[in-house]
Amino acid sequence: MANYTAADVKALRDKSGAGMMDCKGALDEADGDIEKAFEVLRLKGLKGVSKREGRTTTNGLVVARVAGGKGTLIELACETDFVAKAENFVALAEEVADAVVASGASDVESAPAASHGGGTVADAITDKAAIMGEKVELRRVAVVEASGVDAYLHRTSRDLPPQVGVLLGYEGSDSDTAHDIAVHIAAFSPQYLTRDDVPAEVVAKEREIAEATARDEGKPEAALPKIVEGRVNGFFKETCLFDQDFAKDNKQSVGKVAEAAGLKLTGFVRFRVGV
Questions:
Q1: Which of 107, 139, 151, 162 is the most exposed, having the fewest neighbouring CB atoms within 10 Å of its CB?
Q2: Pairwise CA distance, residues 58 & 9, whole Å
């Protein structure tokens, strides 16, 4: 007869983030001792690390840190939403963010080597992934530096941790408007700050597509330049932050709102988990 209760299984699941059957098996092996069962899960998980390498990680969360004119945004990814909302996964993400900031790492290539406890961030992720029984990876790290940095994290579902994260760098004193613009970025997902930031080859391709589409539609040859210019401007309005209609007042562009608030926007990053 099993020497544990349903409450023990739940406690081990909450502590480890592992699946129900894995937790039951570990408790069986540990004769109902939750701490020993936790270690069983860890050791078994470490043996299966290589088997998980090919799995996809489409869930997870984002964490942001802002201090001294420097913002850091990380995405820690996992396989399932169950693990994404587990307390130990959320705690790991917070620890990783702190370690990355302390190390000064600014990209996902250098961040895994950041010091964490007696080892590295990479070690901590491997250890926790073994317990959870899922592939866990630090997918992205980005840094924004400016005289002012606003961070916004958005939950796409009530029962999940933040799935969308934004850092916005700016100069100026109107932090409320800066935050509103960060929220706008989360919602409307611009790809560039201004038109000048769009690579020339991307603009050329948009012009080529716009012209070919207009010809296929049978538009008059004389009207093509104006039609193409209009469609390219539409592309800018969709993809460039400054050109987008502001979420809180679609009669103004984000660029005009920032100008009226005395803000100079210097850069942004936006992460959405799994995208």
A1: 107
A2: 26
